[in-house]
Amino acid sequence: MEDTPNCPQCNCEYVYSDGSILICPECGHEFQPGDVAEKVYKDMNGTVLVDGDTVIVAQNLKVKGASSPIKKGTKVKNIRLVEPEDGVHDISCKIPGFGSMMLKTSVVKKG
């Protein structure tokens, strides 16, 4: 079976080929195979981020259920960029003293 991309509009995985175009059965979106671009993740300064980068937290972040915030300047190593499930948090990482967390690219800068 061929490796077809998900629909760029609704992320449906049941996209099928009809000659030279791809069609989404859920939303009806038609697109070319080359139209699907890989998402580019950028930090607060516009620098491109990739998996394994080290980033620095650019502002104090309150953590629900924690007694103290993540301090500005905290270095986070070996980040993993993920497609956000909630539509907002797109960095999966481990923060020293807090454990596994999800962060927004808009609150970090490449370190």
TrEMBL record:
The Protein YjdM C-terminal domain, residue ranges: 42-110
Superkingdom, natural source: Bacteria
SUPFAM superfamilies, A to Z: Prokaryotic SH3-related domain, Zinc beta-ribbon
Residue ranges annotated for the Protein YjdM N-terminal domain, each copy included: 4-32
Record InterPro entries: YjdM (IPR004624), YjdM_C (IPR013988), YjdM_N (IPR013987)
Native organism: Pseudodesulfovibrio sediminis
Name this protein carries in UniProt: Alkylphosphonate utilization protein
Family membership noted in the UniProt record: Belongs to the YjdM family.
